[in-house]
Amino acid sequence: MTTTEFAQSPDAQEQRGRPQSWGDTTVSLARSIARLADHGRGDLAELRRMDPDEPDAAAFWRLLAHYKLLGNPVIENKWALILHGIALMTPTTGGDGDRPTAHDGSVPVGQALFLGGEQQRGERGFYSESRLNRLLTARGPMLRTLLARMFRMLAASGASFNWREMAQYILNEGYNEDAAEQGRRHIARKYYEAKRRSSQQSEAQGE
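The chain above was modelled as a monomer; its predicted structure follows.
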């Protein structure tokens, strides 16, 4: 499967004559899942408990049907991992007006991994370098396992990140290795950029 096939939702092409990217679909899904925090706590809990390799939550199937993402079991399982992660990282408290979501387009995944839910960490990252190395070298089922653990860790810290980036990485892994490798490099690059900035801030405060 090519990146182009992942890049566009065929059904969305019928809406206002322009395609909707998988990234846009992911952001819309994040908003839908955030609304469950107000109106469907049981559905949100099901998505959080769901095994992404054997998705059985009714809310999962309803969301995929609504966004017209059904049809390929392998791709459905990729979306199951994405929805599971979004549900885990969706805040259930706070927010005036629009419900806060797990998606924050201003926070790259690598930055969130280093900082967690904090603004500064000095030399030591929330997600250790050894964990990061295991994540970026993992493939297939092991990657899915490590990502699910990572989502839980970040959720516990109150962190959010750019789900467009994460969804593209999950969808491309195993299909388009060039695109998946670009995703890995971007995560690593932003992690170490965040580490450098945090270290510099700590040094400046210590002077």
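The longest helix spans residues 177-206.
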